[in-house]
Amino acid sequence: MSRPQKQRLEARGVAVAFGGIRALSGVDLEIWRGEVLGLIGPNGAGKTTMVNVLSGFQRPTSGSISLDGIDVSRLTARKIAQAGVGRSFQAARLFRAMTVEQNLSVAAIGSGLSRREARERALDILRWMGLERKADHRCDSLSYGDERRVSIARALALQPSFALLDEPASGMNDAECEALMEVISELPARFGCGVLLIEHNMKVIMGVCQRIHVLDGGQSLAEGSPQDIQKNPAVRRAYLGEKATDSTLAI
Amino acid sequence: MKSDTMSFATIGRFWFPVLALVIPLAIIVVVTGQFGGLSIQRTVIEMLISIVIVVGLYVFVGNSGIISFGHATFMAIAAYASAWQTCCEMLKPITMSGLPPFLRDQSIPLLPSAVVSVLLAGGAAFLTGLVIMRLTGLAASISTLAVLFILNVVYSNWDSVTMGSASIVGLPTYVTAWLALGCAVVAIVVAYLYQVSAFGLAIRATREDEVAAAASGISLYWSRLIAFTLSGFMVGLGGVLQAHYLGTVSINSFFLSFTFLALAMLIVGGMGSLAGAVVGVVVITAMVDIFRRLEGGISIGGEQWSLPAGTQELIIAAFMLLILVFRKDGIMAGREMTLPEQEHREKGLING
């Protein structure tokens, strides 16, 4: 591990309990700038809880979160966002009565830009994602696929050092998935950020991630390259039951 | 040359939502000033003052999505402050003996006193907001109602300063249609510039989705506190105008029935947009005026005919109910006045 400590978002021994239910128990996870890390696992594995912890929406029962080596476990969601952790939501959660450009500008303003600079950054990102024609459309008039893309674009408008994307491809058709994969793979180079990607679509995960972290029942099950994960017997059992065949996880 | 015309078009498009509200108001003032009777002219002035108040209310309620029942508080603070400074120099030492000497024994010129009163209202809104803007949703709304009750009780019983629940009469009446129009225009312009600013965008985001706004680095507390304070200044201006239009100040005119009427105006027009606030005032004022006349009695075919007293309130309430049932986002449904091409773009296409 020669990479400097400064450039990572790190969870150490994170546990979250809701009453008696342990959503996460002792998970270690780190995301480096410049990489795409996939976070996968069966339903209820604790993936979204992990994103909520990393983005400050869920305070861990124990364990800590550090950003570029600084402990951010006690910060509010807003402060963590301003410190450079952007996220999208499973349900897009757009500001529906506002335009696409305004949605992005809000995040840019949240990161400290003036209104004018925010608009420029917003239009920049929209152009890059091929959404510039939609800039002045209200978000309650968007198609489902556009809604999802705008929610990613908004997370990027924060100019985050880490972008946490919660199931960005859910409900997208094949062509939309392809386009989305292209966007996600270009994020590290274009924005200099690290990406944490939660996704059920294995084609997307295997296609864009350099590393994959597998959660099951709130615990880390495995971590490694896509090839390693595909071969990992424990992962296959968790995902597919004992009768896993070679073809199910392979793409 | 081309870039000049381009920027002219851009400026025109930017200001269109304001001009589309201000120009009709100016036309109303000119026309009623020329051809209207005295009672119509009075109605127009009342309407313009209501615009200052309701647009001020909109700055907080419309942008934050939190209903406030407490804004009459800041109007009352400004109206009373102005009364203390400008009213009845001879009577003050007797009727309001509890005032500090610099207020009790002299009058302060109109403009400085108006400015001070508005500042006081804004300051009171800021201090109140420091405490209650930590609350969200319904709790925030109810706490504004509590603020209104606190002020009402204090002012109703502070006899030596406020004359209790009696009216203070004899304020200089300097509010003309043109002054009221000027203030309404200022209120509309301020509200518009605020809502298109970074602050306005931030608070509108919190209205749409608090969680996503926090994830975008927006502070709910500060953005709401800014809106609440600005809104306090603006309704304070409305309070001063009302006091110096009627010439009297009375604490009960800043209580529940007024609060209801102001909110009804905002809800009927649509609290999601500045145009909604202005349109709501115009519509409700027209309705109130018509039914007030009918209550007063008219003669049809030589026969005197009138509606029972209270009909006007009843009709307004029923009208608000109908709006809430059939068009819950109000007449303007959260939209500003836009040029046709803009509207087309904003509507977008479901699959386009």
Largest interface: A-B, 41 and 29 residues
Category from helices, strands and their pairing of chain A: alpha/beta
Strand fraction of chain B equals under 5%
The radius of gyration of chain B is 21 Å
- Please, how many helices of chain A? 10
The outline of chain A comes out as globular
H/E element sequence of chain A: EEEHEEHEHHHEHEHEEHHH
Q: Architecture of chain A, CATH level 2?
A: 3-Layer(aba) Sandwich
Mean pLDDT over all positions of chain A: 91
Order of helices and strands of chain B: HHHHHHHHEHHHHEHHEEHH
Q: Please state roughly what percent of the residues of chain A sit in beta strands, choosing from under 5%, 5-15%, 15-25%, 25-35%, 35-45% or over 45%.
A: 15-25%
Oligomer: heterodimer
Explain what the structure shows.
Chain A: This is ABC transporter ATP-binding protein. Chain A: Residues 9-242 form the ABC transporter domain. Chain A: Keywords: ATP-binding, Nucleotide-binding, Transport. Chain A: GO terms for molecular function: ATP binding. The complex is a heterodimer of chains A (251) and B (352). Chain A has helices at 47-54, 77-83, 100-110, 115-128, 144-157, 174-191, 202-208, 226-231, 233-240, 246-249; strands spanning 8-18, 21-32, 36-40, 62-67, 70-71, 85-87, 162-166, 194-198, 211-216, 219-224. Chain A has 251 residues and is of the alpha/beta class. Chain A has a single domain (33-56, 74-249), classed as 3-Layer(aba) Sandwich (Rossmann fold). In chain A, α3 crosses α4, α3 packs parallel to α5 (144-157) and α4 packs across α5 (144-157). Chain A starts with 7 loop residues before the first strand and ends with a helix. The model of chain A has no long low-confidence stretch (mean pLDDT 91). Chain B has 352 residues and is mainly α. Chain B has one domain (15-296, 304-344): ABC transporter involved in vitamin B12 uptake, BtuC, CATH 1.10.3470. Chain B has 16 helices and 4 strands. Chain B has helices spanning 2-35, 38-64, 71-86, 92-95, 101-104, 110-132, 137-157, 159-162, 177-196, 198-208, 210-215, 220-246, 256-269, 274-296, 311-326, 340-347; strands at 168-169, 248-249, 298-300, 303-305. A two-stranded antiparallel ribbon of chain B has the order 1-2. In chain B, strands 3-4 form a two-stranded antiparallel sheet. Chain B starts with a helix and ends in a 5-residue tail after the last helix. In chain B, 45% of the residues are buried. The model of chain B is unreliable at 346-352 (pLDDT under 50). The A-B interface holds A 55, 57, 76-78, 81-82, 86-87, 89, 93-99, 102-103, 105-107, 109-115, 118, 134, 136-138, 141-143, 154-155, 157-158 and B 196-198, 201-202, 204-205, 208-209, 211-220, 272, 334, 342, 345-351.
